[in-house]
Amino acid sequence: MNITDVRVRKVAKEGKMKAVVSITIDEEFVVHDIKVIEGEKGLFIAMPSRKATDGEYRDIAHPINSNTRERIQSIILEKYEQAMAEEPAEAIGEL
């Protein structure tokens, strides 16, 4: 599996969510709405999820092992850092 494209949409408003990301896998499959979150231990990603009838959030799409999750997270956070370096914060529009 190769991530062939990463699109970062920065979030300007205050809060823990810093960006929303879409990735393309093998130029054939896209996953939208991956969130970049600022946590107590630094940045991490949250896969797209939906609120279930019991009030819990459940991932809609997600990696099935930790190595794949780490690889996806590493690529996304690298692209996020590049996007942050390219554009000053005051020029970022709200989503």
From TrEMBL:
Pfam families: SpoVG
Keyword Cell division recorded: yes
UniProt keyword Transport present: no
InterPro entries reported in the protein's UniProt record: SpoVG, SpoVG_sf
Entry-linked Gene3D superfamilies: Stage V sporulation protein G
Signal peptide: none
Record function comment: Could be involved in septation.
Protein's name according to its UniProt entry: Putative septation protein SpoVG
Organism: Lactonifactor longoviformis DSM 17459
